[in-house]
Amino acid sequence: MLRKFSNSRTLGDNIKLGTLTAFAAGMVNVASLLLFLSFSSNVTGYYAIVAAEIVKGNWYQTAVVFGWVFLFFLGSFTANFMVIHLNKRNKYFAHSLPISIEILCMMAVGLYGEFFYNETLVETEALLALMLFAMGLQNGLTASISNFAVKTTHLTGTTTDLGILFSMFTKNEFRSNPALRGRALLLSSITISYVVGGVFAGIAHFHIGFKLFYIISLFLVIVIGYDAYKISMVRYQWISVRKKNRQLLTDTGAQDNIPLKTDTSTLEKERSVC
Amino acid sequence: MLTKRWLILVYAALFTLNIMGFAWMINAATNPEKAILGQWKEAGWHYERVNSKTDTLRKEVYYRAGNEPVVHKAETWSFLPDGTLVLNREHGEETASWCIKGRGNILELKYNDGRKEHYDLTTLSDDSMTLNFELDTQIKGLAKLTFDRLM
């Protein structure tokens, strides 16, 4: 899900990444709307609000919204910065670091909200700022590693693309195109997942309040944990094969003369993973 | 072509400029949480986006808000710094708690029975305040309350 980059990613990788992160984004957006009465994952509307607030002369609101938009931008910048600068050292680390920071942000919002939040305006704005930064991180990362195929924090582009795709499907030549069908499947999964996440958050918030952010963090842990598990499994298989080969060589007593047999496919897998 | 050092300088300058612009705007503007403090007298309760101001429509507006009729008439609202709102009515006084949410544009009132009301803080100046009663986060402007500052 996270360890592959750009064109080496399969449709399955993108669907897994897209659905899980869209579910988290849907939850974050609805949670922020219900708890702080403001959106936290879609910035399109905020550009319009900045313009409207400037016209009205509401400089306080202009500054706040400008700050939120800038933090979303900064999140996206940070995520892609990490991906392109740390990719060569360790691909998995580079791709999971932005999600790890996002988890920290979500945990911070959850813990602060549960134990310290006094509903002052500064607190509300700061917590929203943290959420917008986290959403920028998530959107920047998913878009960056999937070659802009997966964007999960807002659905404007997704809905537009789905509209185009479904209109294309009215012609048989496009309908039978596997790439277009795959894209439609990916975008539909993201949309459904986002909405389901939002509905879940809407119901859960009434019962658990700020604890909802722990659930969001858990989902993000699944995103990074899935790949960590895959990597450790491949490593384990590789070590087992090596152990078996060594044992075989020791048993035959020809350690120096017979070349070491290795499972090349496992080795290749290991290389692609790391 | 920009060298790496120049690039870092340009990025740092842009970042600093953004932070400075933000800090300047926040300091120059009045925080709505402070601007709202004081005593306000209800000056009017207007209905918008209705074709005819019939009682039926009014009732609908009241009841859709939260299963309970929500009518504020000829009240004095006192916003205290500790987050308490004192509503002085003809037949007594009621307290609630208040807070401002969103980007400083939503006034949330919480009554002692758990009832919540949300108002869009449309105008907040030294001498007047306009609140748009919110029935839903995306629907507003059905009912508008205007206030004059008393003190």
Automatic annotation (TrEMBL), chain A:
Q: Which residues cross the membrane?
A: 59-84, 96-115, 127-150, 184-206, 212-229
Cross-referenced InterPro entries: DUF1275 (IPR010699)
Per the record, a Pfam family? DUF1275
Assigned keywords, A-Z: Membrane, Transmembrane, Transmembrane helix
Q: Which domain of life is it from?
A: Bacteria
Protein name, as recorded: Uncharacterized membrane protein YoaK, UPF0700 family
The scientific name of the source species is Parapedobacter composti
- Show the taxonomic lineage: Bacteria, Pseudomonadati, Bacteroidota, Sphingobacteriia, Sphingobacteriales
UniProtKB/TrEMBL annotation, chain B:
What is the superkingdom listed in this entry's lineage?
Bacteria
User: What is the protein named?
Assistant: Lipocalin-like domain-containing protein
